[in-house]
Amino acid sequence: MAFSAGSDGGRRSPEHLTAQHAHVVCGWHVYFGAKNVRRAIKLYDRNRPIGHIPRVELVKGDAVQSIPAFIAENDHTVVALLYLDFDLYEPTKAALDAFLPRMPKGAVIAFDELNQKH
To answer: Can you tell me the distance from the alpha carbon of 47 to that of 67, in angstroms, rounded to the nearest whole number?
Structure first.
């Protein structure tokens, strides 16, 4: 699975994470009502093999609470790619605490805007 945490103000959809149709993408978004994110997901599903099988799941809610709840409900989760774009300490830490133990050797963690001065 690939996980996108944060959404760049609703301008980025989690479909940018999938290189293969076999992966499922989950995204945590503070700006959950973004129409362009939902539109991008529909376009993604229309233009990929087996597009009738959902591959993107948006999780609504505060990531500090919803990420541990997601893991509790999906204890089989293995994370291949973790893309972090929260820009805040607490949700980033919650994501790392929950997902790092589920990342095998060779998994990738990407931080958006790491070491930015502003």
So the answer is: 29
Structure-token pair, residue 63: 């990531």
On whether the CB atoms of residues 30 and 66 are closer than 8 A, the answer is no
Bridge partners, 84 (sequence order): 5, 111
**Confidence class for position 20, pLDDT limits 50, 70, 90:** very low
> Is residue 32's pLDDT more than 90?
no
DSSP 100: G
> Residues near 49 by Cβ (< 8 Å), separated by ≥ 6?
21
Locate 109 and state its tokens.
């963690």
The structural domains of the chain, ordered by start, are 2-111 (3.40.50.150)
Assess whether pLDDT exceeds 50 at residue 17.
Answer: no
The confidence score (pLDDT) of residue 23 equals 58
How far the first Cα of the chain sits from its last, in Å, is: 31
Helix axes 63-73, 89-99, angle to 10 degrees: 10
The DSSP code sequence of 71-117 is HHH-TT---SEEEE---SHHHHHHHHHHHGGG--TT-EEEETTTT--
